[in-house]
Specification:
six-stranded parallel β-sheet, alpha/beta, Thrombin, subunit H
Length: about 270
């Protein structure tokens, strides 16, 4: 069930307090997160709403770019989907306005377009959008994008502070850096040279105490880059998601996290 479905007309009456954070707090449910959908085609809006309905997000609706920009300024959603072509203001123009505002720039923006030409793709990239989805959009890709930018999967597991030396690399090349925090779902690596989002990684690190060595595959899930800080309490670096932990390694991580007995921080 939807928790809210609010348009520009009633946003003023139902506006939540400002103070947006693009990455919601630890263990928040999907019904705590607000997603803005902006598209002038009602059929696409209904389709996108159905994709999100089961996830239980709060929903804001805009019929054009100007309405979308006004809602972003008023409501500070956690994630924005914009159609590239809309009346009054196109999606790339709206995105550019959002990203040029220091108070809004950390809000993830995904532009949806049916065009695959280099002109359309360049417009989206130059506007500063965080991702591009091509129509027709499958439910899997649509929800996958939402989960990635809201960090839903990673925040389900408790996370504790842990400064561990981590060896990692996309292929045979081996780099090393220190983690800042850790969960059974992933870790945050401090590095001045973060890899692109979705980069595959081989990971290896040693858990203190029993000295259990963890080896697994992973992927770069999100970035805290020098040009765009998403989490001000974390240094420049990258959030890494574990992909193929063995049951033995999963249990070792759980035991380590339990032994720390700390409040989750991410």
């Amino acid at each position: 069930m939807w928790n809210s479905e609010i348009t520009l007309e009633d946003a003023g009456e139902k506006a939540k307090p400002l103070g947006h954070s693009s990455l919601p707090a630890q263990n928040q449910r999907a019904d705590s997160w607000t997603v803005l959908l902006a598209d002038d085609v009602e059929l696409f809006i209904e389709l996108e709403k159905s994709f999100l309905r089961r996830a239980g997000f709060n929903l804001l609706i805009a019929q054009n770019g100007r309405e979308a920009l006004a809602l972003v300024r008023e409501r500070r959603p956690d994630l924005v989907f914009l159609d590239l072509y809309m009346p009054e203001m196109n999606g790339d123009e709206c995105c550019r306005e959002i990203k040029s505002d220091p108070d809004l720039a950390s809000i993830p923006v995904i532009v949806v377009t049916h065009g695959q030409g280099e002109d359309e793709m360049s417009r989206c990239r130059e506007a500063g959008c965080d991702e591009i989805l091509l129509e027709p959009v499958s439910r899997q890709h649509f929800l996958g994008a939402a989960r990635k930018f809201l960090q839903l999967d990673q925040r389900i597991a408790p996370r504790v502070d842990a400064r561990l030396l981590v060896r990692f690399g996309p292929d045979e090349s081996i780099l090393s850096s220190y983690s800042i925090n850790l969960s059974t779902g992933g870790l945050f690596l401090e590095t001045d040279d973060p890899l692109p989002i979705d980069s595959p990684l081989n990971l290896e690190f040693l858990l203190p105490g029993p000295g259990k060595k963890i080896r697994c595959r992973g992927r770069v899930a999100w970035l805290n880059s020098s040009g765009r800080i998403l989490k001000r309490d974390l240094p420049v670096g990258m959030g890494v998601q574990f992909l193929n932990l063995t049951l033995e390694h999963m249990e070792a991580l759980r035991a380590f996290i339990h032994s720390r007995n700390l409040t989750p921080t991410w």
